[in-house]
Amino acid sequence: MKILAVEDDPVALTVLEDILISLGHEVILASDGESAWKLLHEQNCRAVVCDWNMPELDGLELCKRIRSQPGDYVYFILLTSAEATTQHREHAMSAGVDDFLTKPVDLEDIKMRLHVAQRILQYTTHIQRLESLIPICSYCKNVRDDQSYWKRIENYLAEKTGADCSHSVCPDCYKKHVVPQFEALGITNYPSELKHHGPQARRVE
pTM to 2 decimals? Predict the structure, then answer.
């Protein structure tokens, strides 16, 4: 797992790096919150182990910033001192912190917490994949939304993407449905094929 380690103390950061590498993880290092924020997006890290007390952007504010942005879930472990109270931890959890580690970091302690982090991230990835599947009726082609209401696919796409759908007729349906209507009405000078304006689409077999 790729982990972003954030610590303003160089010695503590080196120790944390050595521990994470010994556990088989890929480690990205940051010495302050702003650098961590930039690296998080550049390196696509899914887990963060971060010191709470840092100048400027501290660990708690970094977590809040991460939670305010859309995207893949990031598991956030906050490093605290032994003096941290239950009230401090409750405040941190309300800001989006997933777990805590007391400094100095214990090898077995962080190993167990990262095992939980990996499992949770696997679950969230699986759920995101399931949610990305769009249920479409096999007959009428209506789509079921998040509230289990069925609606026309163009309305669903407009709500999700903001795009407007324009209706047209594909070449196969033109021959199958439109041409017989012309013939039934006695119209003989109909176009042999449908002409589309704008970018042309090709049918893929």
Answer: 0.62
